[in-house]
Amino acid sequence: MSVKSPIHSKHYPDSFYVASANGLFEHPKLTEHITVDVCIVGGGYTGINTAIELRQRGYSVALLEVKRIGWGASGRNGGELIRGIGHDATQFKNEIGEQGVKSIQQMGFEAVDIVTERISEHNIECDLQMGYCDLAVKPRHMDELAEEYQDLKSQGYQKPIKLLDRSQIGEVIGSDFYQGALVDMGSGHLHPLNLALGEARVARELGAQLFEYSAAEKIIKGDKPKVITAQGQVTCDYLVMAGNGYIGNKLSPYLGGKVLPTGTYLLATEPLTEQQCATIIPQNMAFADMRVALDYFHLSADRRLLFGGLCTYSGKDPKDIEAALRPNLEKVFPQLKGIKIDYEWGGMMGIGANRMPQIGRLPDAANIYFAQAYAGHGVNATHMAARLIAEAISQQSQRIDVFNDIKHMTFPGGPMFRSPMLAAGMLYHRMKDLL
Ligand SMILES: Cc1cc2nc3c(=O)[nH]c(=O)nc-3n(C[C@H](O)[C@H](O)[C@H](O)COP(=O)(O)OP(=O)(O)OC[C@H]3O[C@@H](n4cnc5c(N)ncnc54)[C@H](O)[C@@H]3O)c2cc1C
C-alpha cells in the first residue's frame, strides 16, 4: 500500500524518492518562439547532463520535458551506480574493431567517474555511498564472476574489487540465497531523483533554459531544426533526442521503433532498526543478482530496504506491485517476513534488442543526436552519453562514433506486437536461468 505524496509533488509518481526529494523546483512552460544553439527533448539524466556539458562549452541550450524534471526513469530507478556500459562490448568486435571494444570498456569506467565528480564538484546531496556487489544465484554464476574479475583486472580497472565465496559472503549480506559475490568499491548507490534534481539545479545555474509541461509534439528537420510544442517553438542548430523509454513512436518512428519501453518496479519498506540493517546489509552496499529477471536492492539513507525487480513488456503496471515483489524480498531476506511496505512504484526503462545503448546521429539528419536504450543500467551510461554528444557538437572529439557505428535492430511488429515478441524472448532466457 503506497503512502500519498506530499502536495508539492504534483504530477510526480507516488514514490519514496518523491517523498524524500530535496525540493521540487518548478520550471516554466514554453509559451513563445525561441532560438538556441541546442534544443534537448527529455528531462532525465541524458537530457539534463547534455545541457550541463553543452553550457560548460558555451552553447545556449533549451530543454523540453513533457512532465516534470526527473519524472521518467531518472527519478524512479534503483539508484545503483554500476561500472560498465551495455552488455559485453566484445560481441560488437566485427563492427567496431578491438580498439572500439576497448574504448567502450574504458568509457564504462569513466561514466561512473563523471557521476561522482559531478556530485562532488557541485555539492549535490543525493546520499552517494560507494560499494556494490554482483550476486551469484547459481554455481555457474560464480564462474562468470571469476571471469568478470579477471576481465576487470586485465582492462586496468583501478577500483578495489574482490571475489567472495559462499563461506565469505556474510561479510556483505545476511542471506543464504546466494553462492557468492563480486565486490566492487568503485560502484555504489544514491538517491536517483535527488541526483536528477541537483543536476537540474546545476544546469539552471549554468544558464540552461529548462521547460516543464512542454511536450515536443513535432520535429521539423533541416539546417535549423524546429521543435514544436503546444504553445511554443524552439529553433536550433542541433537537436538532442533524450526521451528514452518514454519517447513513443509518433515523434520519431526511427527512434521509437528501436526502443522497447519495459516496466520494472520497487518497494520501500518502513525504516529498519540499526540492528536489522547490520544483520542484512552490514556494509551498506548495493546489490544486484545475475539472473535475467534480476532482484536489485540497497538501504536508503533513512534505513529503508529499497527492493526492486520484475520486468513487464505490456506497458501496463502490475495491479499490486507489493504482492508481486514481496515474495522475492522475503526469499532473499526471510528475517524481514511481514515487514511493512511504505511505498511501491515503477517506471519504464528503454531496452534495445542488443542491450547496448543507442548513441549517435539520425541517419537522415546529422544535426540531430540521440541517446537511449540503456536498459536497467543507465545511471552511469546516461552521463557518458551526454558527454559524448557535447564533445561531438563542439567538435572536441568524435568518441561518439564508436557507438554510432553499432547497428541496432528495429523491433518488428510495430508498437502493438513487439512487446509480446520480446516477452517470449525473455521467457526463453528466464527458462535458462532456472537450469
Ligand atoms: C524502476 C527502474 C529502476 C532502474 N534501476 C536502475 C539502477 O538501479 N541502475 C541503473 O544504472 N539504471 C537503472 N534504471 C535505468 C535508468 O533509470 C535509465 O537508464 C536512465 O534513468 C535513463 O535516463 P534518460 O534521461 O535517458 O531517460 P528518462 O529518465 O526516462 O527521461 C526521459 C524523459 O523524456 C521525457 N520525454 C519523452 N518524450 C518527450 C517529448 N516528446 N517531449 C518532451 N519530453 C519527453 C520523459 O517525460 C522523461 O522525463 C532503472 C530504470 C527504472 C525504470
From TrEMBL:
The keyword 4Fe-4S does not apply. Residues 37-391 form the FAD dependent oxidoreductase domain. The keyword Oxidoreductase applies. GO terms for cellular component: cytoplasm. It comes from the Bacteria. One of its GO terms (molecular function) is oxidoreductase activity. Keywords: Oxidoreductase. PANTHER family: FAD DEPENDENT OXIDOREDUCTASE DOMAIN-CONTAINING PROTEIN, SARCOSINE DEHYDROGENASE-RELATED. This is FAD-binding oxidoreductase. It comes from Shewanella algicola.
